[in-house]
Amino acid sequence: MTRGIATAILAFSALVACGGSSAPPAAPLQSSAGIWSGEAVDTATGVHTPLIGASLPSGETSLFANQDCHVYAGNLAITGDRGALTGVAIAKDICYGDQDFVRLGWTPNVPGYGVFETTIQGSGTISTRSAMSLSYRTGTGNAGNIAMRFWDLYDRPAALVSLAGTYANGARLSITIAADGSFSGTEITTPLLVQVTNSYSGQLRVIDPAKNLYRVSITRNAYTYTGFAYLADSAPGKANDAVVIFARQSGGGNGALVHYWIRV
After folding, report:
1. End position of a domain, from candidates 93, 120, 153
2. Residue predicted with more confidence, 59 or 208
3. Tally of structural domains, the chain
4. What is the mean pLDDT of the chain?
5. How far is residue 241's CA from residue 49's CA, in Å, rounded to a whole number?
6. Using alpha carbons only, what angle is made at residue 54 by residues 156 and 229, rounded to the nearest 5 degrees?
């Protein structure tokens, strides 16, 4: 259970503060607002894990990679161009098979799949609409670095009608989004080698009509998650035909959900 960072969701709530007038001139206050892409590198193993992330002007931020079963949640306080991270790291004992959690994402709410928590701390620099660079260490001794670059996908306009349609990810997932942002559907998984049909319902909401980032509330069976979503391109020549969702379990539960839906 001592695998590196960067493997499902990194959720921040940022607190922004300005330096006092008696201090030396401070760096201009930076913003993490945007959609970001990059990677995390584990110091001990050298493993590189791709990351995608999103951040609001308030500093609330989530970074995720659906290649493993981890969640990193905490606060990123920004002063000038510096950020300080504190929080908890959440991980599962095992994931589903590759086809399940790489293509569809994951949740920990399956009997027999354990979850544990540890602390996480970090610090680094932020440059508005350019780059983030953070180092981290967890209570289990994992350490590494996160490097992210701004992705101009963020600058596409947002509208609920743009999301409307039917989506899939292989034959096992079918989701329909209405013009008001509500959605429902089903997904077939095989945890513990037993086929299970999971139900989905939820709501997407525009945050800023000028920015390609949505609030999402999604219920999978009896568990509800809240987080972000955005429209992406599933392949060259395609435009706004994929919905990427990354959310954390509501109500203090130890869980996360990362999904990738393609319009059919």
Report:
1. 153
2. 208
3. 2
4. 79
5. 25
6. 70
Task: Please state the pTM of the whole predicted model.
Answer: 0.82
- Contact by Cβ (8 Å): 134, 83: yes
Q: How far apart are CA 17 and CA 34, in angstroms?
A: 19
d(CA 64, CA 67): 9
Which residues constitute the domain of residue 29?
Answer: 8-153
* 231 shares a domain with 174: yes
**What are the two backbone dihedrals, phi and then psi, of residue 153, each rounded to the nearest 5 degrees?**
-55, -30
Q: Is residue 57 part of a domain?
A: yes
99 near 116, Cβ under 8 Å? no
- What's the pLDDT at 13? 42
pLDDT digits (tens, 9 = 90+) for 119-158: 778 899 999 999 999 998 878 788 999 899 999 999 999 9
Task: Count the neighbouring beta carbons within 10 Å of the beta carbon of residue 146.
Answer: 25
- The CA-to-CA distance between both ends of the chain, in Å, stands at 38
